[in-house]
Amino acid sequence: MTKNIAVIRGDGIGPEIIAQALKVLDRIGEMYGHTFTYTDVDMGGCAIDKYGDPLPSEMLEKCLASDSVLLGAVGGNKWDTLPGHLRPEKGLLRIRAGMGVYSNNRPAKIWPQLASASPLKAEIVQKGIDLIIVRELIGGIYFGEHKTEGDRATDLLTYTEAEIERIGRIGFETARKRRKKLCSVEKSNVLDSSRLWKKVLHRLAEEYPDVELNDMLVDNCAMQLVKDPSQFDVIVTENMFGDILSDEASMITGSIGMIPSSSLGAGSCGLYEPIHGSAPDIAGKDVANPIGTILSAAMMLRYSFDMSAEADCIENAVSAYLDEGCRTADIMSEGCRLVGCTECGDIITANLKR
Ligand code: NAD
């Protein structure tokens, strides 16, 4: 298969971590007979320096013309004093809106080798944590009317059946590619929008008889995530609940440098990026952890290109790297071997096995 990937190296550690992910993708291409071609896209601070714009429209066009987009990170102190519309992060908002990605998917997985990094008790972690939160990204209370009148402030929470259905489908499709368990999180004991959410999710369930659907109230879900996260496979929820729960879920895994994410819309073209920022404090030092980006590339293979075996291959190579006791500085612990960003990419590439 041939796939054209738009590559946004961005700022700070972005170019270093992206270089490692491309090395892994190239090797996967050789091993499985695929051709990955890369189109460089300038976005963020580097685009401001070049064009005076964090995401010129021709750059967005390149992303829309690609099969998927792989993003490092954008931003840095150099651009912090610019007005809002010229900040690097504006590029992020514009690319998400421009690509129409209404679903943000963030896995929270504990690597057994890094179990001690989790703030949860060992007996909880030992049961395993491997879940994905599918969050509706462009609707709900964040996009409703906001107004303040005198001593009263209002934020409007609205969802239509169509908006719920399209994110619900992503939840079912994601679960179908994993352990086939979907937990729909809402507040249907109080909110009309949640009762509509629940109704639509149950209607959709009839189309996915192979996926087990259960409902959970959001307050209970927040509790269950720290009490027994092993019970979850895929969680699907609305924008604000997902915002809060996905931060809670990533925290329980313990390491920001390890976590990938995907954002998907109607088609198969997605936006894949690690959850961390451009880490200007360590940029250019070859010490960043590239695993969040490498795993984002694996998500791209699994969810946009339907290449599950290739995605498994990358995840197994990361696991083997951790088994060997290799660690970048952010996850270093006693008895392990300290490696830099490039060496980490080299070892994971060498560990790729069919
Ligand atoms: P950050 O995630 O960049 O860094 C937070 C801390 O985590 C730093 O100490 C950093 O060194 C460390 N860290 C992050 N990623 C790491 C990695 N892969 N390996 C090792 N250590 C890592 O967050 P911040 O410092 O708040 O933000 C820095 C810049 O990034 C800001 O300009 C911010 O706006 C931007 N940002 C961009 C994105 C994005 O591109 N999606 C997301 C968040 C923040």
Quickly count the domains: 2
- CATH-level-4 superfamily name of the largest domain: Isopropylmalate Dehydrogenase
Using the 3D structure, state the CATH architecture of the largest domain: 3-Layer(aba) Sandwich
Ions and ligands: nicotinamide-adenine-dinucleotide
Any idea what the radius of gyration is?
20 Å
CATH top level of the largest domain?
A: Alpha Beta
Main beta-sheet strand count, sense and barrel state:
10 strands, mixed
Hey, roughly how much beta strand do the residues contain?
A: 15-25%
Q: Helix tally?
A: 12
Describe this protein's structure.
With 354 residues, this protein is α/β, with parallel strands linked by helices. The chain folds into 2 domains: 1-116 and 259-354, 3-Layer(aba) Sandwich (Isopropylmalate Dehydrogenase), CATH 3.40.718; 119-252, Isopropylmalate Dehydrogenase (3-Layer(aba) Sandwich), CATH 3.40.718. Helix content is 40%, strand content 21%. The protein is built from 12 helices and 14 strands. The strands form 3 sheets. Strands 2-1-3-12-11-4-5-10-8-9 form a 10-stranded mixed beta sheet, sandwiched between helices. A two-stranded antiparallel sheet has the order 6-7. β11 and β12 form a beta hairpin. The radius of gyration is 20 Å and the shape is globular. The protein starts with a strand and ends with a helix. The mean pLDDT is 95. Nicotinamide-adenine-dinucleotide (NAD) is lined by residues 13, 73-76, 89, 92, 256-257, 273, 276-282, 288-289, 292, 330.
